[in-house]
Amino acid sequence: MKRSFLLVRKAAVLLLAAVLCLCTAKQLHAYTAYEKVRTLTATVRKVCTITAWHYSGGYWMADNGSGEPRVRIEDTAVKKYGFPKALSQSISADWTIKVPEEVRLARRDGAVIVTDVPENGSCYSSIRSRVYGGEELRIRAEPIIHVSGKSLKDYVPGVRAEIPLISIEYGRNLYALYGKGLKGSTAPGAFSASRPSTVFEPYIHPSMIKNALGTLTDDGYVYAGGRSLPSKGLSVGLLTLIKGGAVGVQFEIPITVYFYAETLVQVIRDAETAVPQDTLQPETVTEEELPAEDPEPARPAEEAPQTEPPSEPADETASDPETPQGPAKKPVQPDTGRTPESPAAEPPAPEKPADPPLPEPPKPVLPEYRIHRAY
User: Does residue 202 have a cis bond before it (omega within 30 degrees)?
Assistant: First the structure.
């Protein structure tokens, strides 16, 4: 009897250990996941440009930000659709940004480079970006063209072409100057739609152009050839301004690019910090770690001991006065023909409090931005 009881007890303890290991494995599996971790590596801010020059032949030559004229826009299209629509429908901005050294090093170490370009609804839309060879970032966008509503013809009578004036919030006008040794040197202009009569020296204001021949006033200053010069003796173009020649526009579009290095990490979600899965080892119970044998006689099979936590042996639990016990065995009474009175009902066992819910893992705060993946 004693040997049978010991065998039953060992089997029950081993079964309990197996159940606990299985539950632990299920819990670890439920809260184990792979997460993408992004680290801000570099931030680049740059002012990109779109430039278009008007020619006396009756057309515009516009570049897409690369600096080379690529698209020809006829004056008839500008007259039909307006300058902003004619230009924005003809080109897509194409800008190149040099990738910072720290981003190249992160990419060389195996990280995936992700770029965030915050949207700027007043300057561009439909952003697309891609890293080429780890050295440069190509950004393509649809530019949003803003003009002031004023034209060069409003200040210079006799000019036949429609040359829009650009307010300083979005860019500037450009002028090709001649005279005093200058042969087509580019001079920037400055015009404010909110203060149309204000002159920002040494930048050309349209009121400084005296006539359709392009002659400038004598009392102003301009910036050309890398220096500030008196405007006396200078002209816009060589008798081409009357047809709109030697005048251009330049739109300045500020952009910000955030470079992130993305890596994949296996973590436990219910932990405060990421824990690699390979550091977790399941607990095992060996025969040497089992509780000491109890000389208590074996119980019948139908009254097996209740399953208890492994930290508390069964014999200690039975002697604990706070632990509710089962009903006492009914004593054997001689058959007297009378039915013995039923024992008083024992109070129900207190319910075991539910385990507290596992805390939700902290979510990475990412910025709310649209995520473009770089290849």
Answer: yes
